[in-house]
Each structure stands twice: as C-alpha cells, then as structure tokens.
Amino acid sequence: MGMSAATTAAEGIKFCIFDLRRGQQEGQELDKILFFFPADLPFSAQLSVIGLSEGLITFTRIFSPEAACEVIEAERHSHVFYEAEPDIWMVMVVEKNESEAIWRIDALRKVLKEVHSLFLMFHGSIRTMIEKEPAGGLIRSHLYPFIMDYLSACQKRSLLDNCCWDFLLGKKLQLPSFRDCLKERGTVQMLTVSREAAIEVQSLVRVLESFAGNTQFYSLILFQDLLVSTTLSPVDTINLFTYAVLRLTPRALSSGVSSWSYLRKGSTTSNVATGSILAQSASVSEQNFRSRDTSPPGGDNSHHIARPLQPDRWSKGKDGFLVTDIWGAEASSSTSATPTIWLQQTEERVYVCAYQYRSLTLILLVPVASILGEQGVSAVKQQILENVSFLPVFTEFFFPLLNPSVYSCPKQFGALIATLTYRSCCSLMIK
Amino acid sequence: MSGKASSSQSSIGLSRSSALSHVYIQYPPLRCNVPGSRGLFYDDGNKLILSPTSDQVFSWKTVPFSPLVAPTSDSISEGPILSIRCSLDEKFIAIQRSNHEVQFRHRETGETFSQRCRPESESILGFFWTDCPLCDIVFVKTSGLDLFVYNSELKSLQLVETRKLIVSWYVYTHESRLVLLASGMQCKTFNGFQLSSAGVIRLPRFDMAMAKSEANSKPVLAAEDINIVTVYGRIYCLQVDRVAMLLHSYRFYRDAVIQQGSLPIYSSRIAVSVVDNVVLVHQNDAKVVILYDIYADSRAPISAPLPLLLRGFPRFNTSVSQSSREDSGSSGANVVPDNEAVIYGDDWTFLVPEFICDVANRLLWKIHLDLEAISASSSEVPSVLEFLQRRKLEANKAKQLCLAIARTVILERSPVPMVARAMDVLVTSYSHSVKTGSYLKGIKSEKTSPSSVPHVSSPRSGADVSASRVDSLEKSVKHASAAAAGVDNEYASDSEENPSSEPPTTNLSDLQIFDGNNPLNANGSEQQEAQLTSPAISPEEMYSFVFAPVEEEIVGDPSYLVAIIVEFLHSANSEKVKVHPNLYVLTIQLLVRNERYAELGLFVINKIVEPSKEVALQLLESGRQNFQTRKLGLDMLRQLSLHHDYVLFLVQDGYYLEALRYARKYKVNNVRPSLFLEAAFASNDSQHLAAILRFFSDFIPGFQNTSDHNTYYRILNEMNSSIAA
User: Fold this and answer.
1) Which of A203, A205, A208, A239 is the mutation pick for testing B, counting most B CBs within 10 A?
2) Which of A68, A72, B82, B193 is the most exposed place for a label (fewest CB within 10 A)?
3) What ipTM was estimated for this complex?
C-alpha cells in the first residue's frame, strides 16, 4: 500500500460513520464500520475508536435518554457526535490544539450535518442503502468517495498544490478554521434586490415553472454565490444552495482549470492532470475499503457510483446548460445522463437542469415521475431555451444593479442598485 | 383570425346570438317618409337628414340616433334642389338651386338672398359650411374655392378669399374638415385643404395610384371611389382602384400625404364606414363587410368577411316585432314590407361616418359593431383585448367583455406568457387612460350626471395630450365649434405613442381634428347609456371582477393564479400603477394554501407584496400555522408605525412586557391595562403582575382608583400570600 507515508499524519483527526445495529455479534465488529478516515488505520485502531464512541453514546444515554450526546471533551481529543439517522452515527475525533479546542465543536457538528444532508440529497438515506444491500458494500462504496470529495471540496483552492496529500490526511484535513466557524453552515446567503428586480425574477420563475402543467416544478436562482429566489422548501434550498456554491456557480466552475471550455473531452483530460493525485488516492483507498468487503464482488463492481462532489466535473455547454458526466453516460448516446437528486420535503426524485447565463445560475428541478426520461428532460430544456429567450435581456437588466462593482452602472439603474447583504456571519460558539 | 363566427365559439360564454356577423343594423330604422318628398339629403355638418317637398323641408336629427325622432319642418320656396345644407348655427338653410346659384333662407325671419357665380366661365360643384375663423361658407366651383363670410348687416355673403384651381369634382367631410379637389385627365391629382377652427391648411398636391388595365385605356377616378376616413383622430383617405382591386390608403399629415399600403377588395362596388374608429369596408357585391382597425400597423382584417346583419327584424324575430311595431306609425303598421330587409340593396347610400340611407324606402339605418361576436371570433387574446380597450362607443360593454375574457383565460389555465401579455394590455391601457384623464372622467361623469361631459380622446390616440389640452378640448366641446384645436403647432412631432405602428414619418405631425362634432364624442346618447367613457380597468376592478371571482372558481393548484398575479404586478410595476392591498392579501392566502411559506417570506422581504395594514393582518392570520410568517406580519405593523396594533398583537402572543416597553417608547396610551394584567395573570408570574401594576400606577394617572387596579392588587396579594404559605 502506498499509504504508509500518511500514517503519521493520520493521528490528527479521525472521522467515522458506523451503524449500531450491525456487528453486535462477537467477531463481527468490523461490520459496524461504514466509513473510516483515515482508511489506512489498522482495523484494531479503527475498532477502538468506534468502541469508545459506542461506549460513550451508550453511557450518556443513561443520563439523557431523550437528547443524545453531542460532544465529549477529553484531555487531548474532542469527540464530536452526530446521530445522522437512527443508530447511524457520525463521529469526528479531533486532536486538541491549544487555541482552537472549544469554539470549533459546533462548526464540526455542522460539517457532519452538512455531509449527511448532501448525501441524502444525492443518494437517499444511509439506512435505505444498507437495507438494499445488507452486506454493506454498497453503502461503503458510496460513502467513501462522497465524503472524500466533500472534504476536498472544502479545499478546492489548493487543489493544484503539491501538498494535496496533506489535506486528505492528517491535520490539514480542512477542519473549519476560525473564519469558517463564523460562517454558519446550514444557511443561505441571500441577495437583497429591489422590488423591480424581485418582480422580474418572480415573473421568470413563474413562467418557467408553469411549463410543468399539473405537476410541480421547482427552481432555484443564484446570482454568483448568492441566492436570489427559490421555490424549494427551506431544507432542500439549503442543500442545493450548498451544492451549487460548491460546484455549479461560475466561481465554482472557474476554479477548475478547464471550466470555461465547453468541450467535455478537454475537461476530462485535464481532470487527469489536475485531479489525478486525488483520484489515485481515492481509488487506492477505495480498493483498500473494498478489499475488506465480505460481500462477493458480483455485479457490484459494474455498478456506477456517482460522485456528485467530485471537483471539476461540471462544465458549461454551448447552449448555456451545465453538463456533467458524473451520473454516467447514457448507453445509447454519448450525452451525459441528467443528474437527479432527492428532495427531502416531498420525497421525490427530480432531474437537475442547470442553466447559466453569465453570473446567473438557474436551476430547474423536474420531478422524475412527471416526464419521460432523458427525452423528457431535453424537451424541458428546449422549452426553457425557447421561453427564456428574454433571459439575456433580463440579465443585462440585472447586471448593473446586482453587481455594481464589476459592471459600470448606468445612471438609470442607480435607483435600483441593490445592496449585497450577507445573512449569517454571526455564530461565535462559546459554550 | 380564425374564420369562426360567434356561434361556434363558446369559451367566453358571450356568444348569445346565433348570427354569423360582426356588424349589424338594428331594426327599426329611422323612417324619413313624408308625402311629396323630392329626395333625401344628408347634412353632415349638423348630422341632419333633410327631405324637401315642394314648399317645405323636413329635417331629422340623426344624433342622437333614434327611430322615433320627429322631423322639424321649414317652409322653402319652390324650385329645383341640387343640394341642401343648414348653417352650423342652424340659422340658415342653404339650397343649391342650379350650377350657378345658391339660395339662402333665414329660418326664423324667412328672409332669403342668393349667391350666384359667373355662369359663362364656371359652375358651382357644391358648397359647405365651416367653422373656420376665416369664413362661414365655402363654394367649390370648377374654377376653385370661394370663401365667404355672412354679413348680417348687409344680409349677404362677402367674398373673403378665392383659391384658383381647376376642379373636376370634390369630396368633403365635415368630421375631417377636409376638402379634396380632384383634377387632371384621370381625376387622380388632388389638392387638399383643411378648413378647421384652427385656420386653413393647404396640403401638398398629390397623385393617387391607379393601375392601368390596358396600355391605352386610362381609368378615370370618380368621387365615389374616394372615402375620407377619420379614425383615432387621424385622417386617412381610402381610394378604390377598380383595376387592381385594391383599396389604397393615404394618411394626411400637416405637410405631407403618405401612402400607407393597400387593402384587397372583393367587389367592384365598395363602401366605407367608420364605427367607433373601426373601418368597415362593405363589399357590396359580395354582401359582406370586412373590419379593419387601422390603429395597429397590421393591415390584416380584424375578422373574416361576414355579412351585415339586420337585427330585430320582425320576420326573423317575432318577440322583438311586438315592441318595435308601434313606432312604424306609417300606413300598414302590421305589414312590414319585405324590401326593407334587403341588405346591400342598390339604393343604399353610405353616409359618413356610420349611417346607411336606403333612398328608395326612405330609411336611415345606423351601423353597430357586435363587440361580443368580434371578440369571440379570435383566439388571440392579447390582441382582442387591445381591440376592445380601444373601443369608446360601447365602453361599458367592451369593459365587461375584457373582464370576462380575462377571467376565462385564467380559468382555462392558458399559458402564463400569453396571460401575461393580456394583463399587460389591460394595465397599459389603464395607465394611459389615467394619464389622459379619460378614465377618471368616465368615473366622474358616471358618478355625477350622465350629462354632456364629453369624452375627449381615446386613451391611446391621445396619450400625449397634456392636461391643458384636455381642458381646452372640453371647452372646445362646450362651445360647440368655437375653440376647436384643429391642426396645431404644438404637435411638433407625430403624436403616436406606439412607435411600432408608425411608418417612418415620425417627424410629421398629423392632421388632427379635435372639435365638438368629432365623431369620437358626437354620439352623446350612447355615452349617456353607457356612462363610461373608457373601457380601461383599474387594479381594484381587476381584483374585484377578475382575481377574486377566479379564485373562488379555480380548481386545483393555486400556484397558477399566483403566477398570473405576479405577471399582473409585473405589468403594474412597470406602468407605475398602484395595486390594491386586496390583491396582496389574496396572494398571501394562495401561497399559504400551498404552504409555500418560504416563498411568501421572499415576497414580503423583497416587497413584491407591498406593506400595508391589510397585508400585515393577513400575515398575522396566516402565521397562525407558521411562526416566521407571523413574525413578518408583526414586523410589518411596526414598520408601518401601527403602534397600537403592534402592541395588541404582542400582548396577544404573550410578550406583554415587551409590549409595555414598546407602548411606553412610542406613547401608545390607548390600550386597556386589563389586557396586560390578564396576560400577566395568565402567566401566573406574580413578579410580572406586580411590575405591570406598578407600571400603570406610575404612568396612568388615577389608575389606582380603577377597578382593574383593585382587582389585580387583590389577586397579587393572594398570589404572594399563597407563595408565602
């Protein structure tokens, strides 16, 4: 294994997900582990972390049966607990460091929550996946790349850095820094717009959603990294907003080398160059994980695992729609399959159609049940294109007022200039 | 433009007549039958039908049009009559006796005098009275125009000006004040003069287009091929080209005549009428009529060619005949002659702008538009609404139709972009009518008296008319013909506000007619019936007659209706039209019904839903299930400085201490102390109760003597003693 170099660094942080309903028999303890970071830690060490956590959880339950344990402060480590789903726990063990020990605990819990929410959005619940394949291979093969991608997403700016080994392993795992702790996760940054602009946006949204006829479409509109409008429920809005800021907005696209090239081939080749190290590490770890799987490899290997958080896999197509091959390609054609996500509020699966015009990102969510597969999606896209032919005009109208610093602002828009306000920014977590 | 007629159209629920027609004449007609009549003459200056006998002339007023109107009569002397017209003040009757002589008779005194021309060199083609300040009457002669003033002392005409021209024939309409003089071999070269109250304008000479049938034969233009048409305050000339089978249109500007394109014709005999600014081209041979709305740039007809309908004719409809019979007082009241029902008979003469004279039967029909049928025949809702919004004669009917159409398109869940355009049409029209004052004027006349308050200009054609202009128009109307504006220098540029409909002639100013006898406001009777002068629909009416009824009827997901309301707000916002809070309240209710609280929050925060007390109360009401929404309502109350309500709601929600602090800060003095005391008592907190008692004792003089104080003081003591115990 080429991971030996990392073992020393791995002591800084441990992150695991385990299922208390599994591995209750003597000798089957390994079954509990759904995810462990660092993956190259010896199983005995992994089991000791999980055993300790399990013990703490069970012990504290005696005193507080209703509210489970959230954090344990030990002398040298902090244990952060989050019960993502019943009996499925996410635990992060962080080595204490003089100055940062206390305040980041809540931020870390938010990270755990966010990881889980995003996983829910893309793959559905962990429990469902376990039930689908009780051996646990399926959930493990999904969780590992997902979480690793998520962690790398927090680190996207140093992607080209040679030390990217470090951010995956050891102390450089992007624990929320002091600044990150001030930025509360689980919120959205809204763009405050003038009434005129708000009505324009609403008008656009309603027209787009009216294509749906009897079924309900949803939409989300962002200007740069700020939310302009949403018709999703708050929880889904937060998840999709988080994802969009990580992967879909112009800034997220441009962080990759090839994001402005709409040739997807170019994108993939560059991926090899830039993300190869990451990919290698992930795949090695994956192998590492899978090698332990007790389940027979069977059809599992052929199963495509979508890695929605994988960086630099989205690009903007000629028609303005964002495309990705994350969800695999359709067998019949060379076009990529349209991404789908789960909405928590309505518990339906929806296609994600993201359209981008300059700084404006428009995400239309079309229930899978309401249309006929990929053909239906392209029909919807066609309708969008036909009906938002006014979108360029519309955004031209908005540009000066949304982003006065970037574009010179004609006088007539002076009255409309909206102020950018960031809601959030204030959760110093001192207990 | 589907060819569908009213009968095949059911969506709007308007089609009540089975007739395939967009234009109708209403039975009974005005009967101009007097024994010994020697023909019928139409005096368009005074809108009179004149029927001379050997020693008398009978005249019927056609405005307001009523089949029951009784004629007045004047005695005249014997002699041939070529034409007959009353002066505009109706004091004189002028009768053209021959090609060389016009005789005048004072109606009251009976004095007569004559004006002759030189018989050897010229002959009189005709004459007309004018309100031009320069002269009173104009003779059109083969040698040109003679302008005369009546001198009351000398009791004769005085020549003030002569315009020397060679004239073959001429056309004049009083509503346009325009006389066109034809000359040349083919009579296709024209000189034009407008003699309005603003003075005399000479138009540049121009030729009309004439297609050649064969190489050597040149068709000659006849007077009946020329129609002067006045729509939306603009003057056009429609010229029949019999060879090309086209109707060429020309628009008159102050200093130019510009051809505007051609309409196809399908009959060798055609006639043109104008009803409520809609141009009706009667194809006499085909016995159909085609409607054009020349306001828009499009030369497409409004609807398919359909026959003119005779409504209420006894043979077709016996129930109507019962009521209509009594007026046909002439002999044989029970027998309606069949020939009265001949549509497009050979004897029909079309009078400007909207009458048909059946010369043989001595009948006068008035042409009406069937707005229901027209609106039902097209599925292009926005353009139908535009058409209806331009109608003035039956403003109320047009308005009701617009409301019905708006309701229907929403109930049918038409595509949002289409409904958005429809909303935009209505809002824009309202905005224009407010700017021009015609909307408010309509309301005013409706409320005060349906009197002679004239409507001035259509909301569109006069959109740029300033307030002073409207005033002057009112005056001009009141003083009949005195102060009409006519062609005015204020119109430095062309005044249309719809650039797309304009030919590239925007530097031209229209020949305009604004005066008392403008057909736009001439038909007083109908306005009195309709009372409304503009079909524009205010946002309040949109709420009461469209959104509220639709909200009750619409089935299924209300988010469609929200989308429509957003589009309406969009239009209203871009036109700076204020929206009634009721509509916002409705929007909130609809969003809450779908439990779309997050979107509701966006609507309120972004002020798409404008703050008002009604809105705040609805938010509080809807917020019973959603705390965030209730908070928005409370915040709105506070932002609106509705301190009293804010305090009450705070108490209601249990924040009585905060309410007290707020009440003190903003000096809300009129809340009942008992509310706070009850709330504190309900919370069972003796300290709070004590604090409140102390607060009121300190800040309300005499509180200690009230029963509230005594009651709660006792309660407080009991609470304390029970704690102590």
Assistant:
1) A203
2) A68
3) 0.72
